[in-house]
Amino acid sequence: MTAIADLARAIPIALVPIAGSQSKKIRKNDPFFVQTIIARGVYEGVDHTWTLGVGAQWLVSAEVPEGRVYAITKALWHDNVLTILKDGHPLGEMIRLKTALDGLTVPLHPGAARFYRERGMIGLAKPDPAQPAKAP
């Protein structure tokens, strides 16, 4: 981001949006992409721009104890941590629990799955990311 931000401070730039049917086509083939927006002000002189992004994913070994991963996942979503993330970076305000599993293409660790299941984000209504995907 720094190189683009530096460029935007030096000369006017425009970002090409990725949205609508173009976005849907890309996400159908590559489901790890999520629809997102680059907020006004992230780059000097650039208005809100729809684009595709890849969510941050925290990966751990299956060997890490379930309780530890559960505690870390729970801590990540604590209000105090979310405030720090929001205040620390322009994109921090886009980190939301409700979109935490968007674009997920790998199985969740059982500790993380437990956290999201307790919040009703996975279970019977939709595929459980804790289970490995089945090959077509």
List the helices and strands and how they pair.
Blueprint: H1 2-10, H2 20-29, E1 33-38, E2 49-54, H3 66-76, H4 79-88, H5 110-118
Antiparallel strand pairs: 1-2
Helix pairs in contact: 3-5
Account of the 3D structure:
The chain is mostly helical and 136 residues long. The chain has two domains: 1-54, 3-Layer(aba) Sandwich (D-Maltodextrin-Binding Protein, domain 2); 56-124, Periplasmic binding protein-like II (D-Maltodextrin-Binding Protein, domain 2), CATH 3.40.190.10. The chain is 36% helix and 9% strand. It contains five helices and two strands, in the order H-H-E-E-H-H-H. It has helices at residues 2-10, 20-29, 66-76, 79-88, 110-118, and strands at 33-38, 49-54. The protein has a two-stranded antiparallel ribbon. Helix 3 packs across helix 5. The chain is globular and about 50 Å long. It starts with a helix and ends in an 18-residue tail after the last helix. The model has no long low-confidence stretch (mean pLDDT 87).
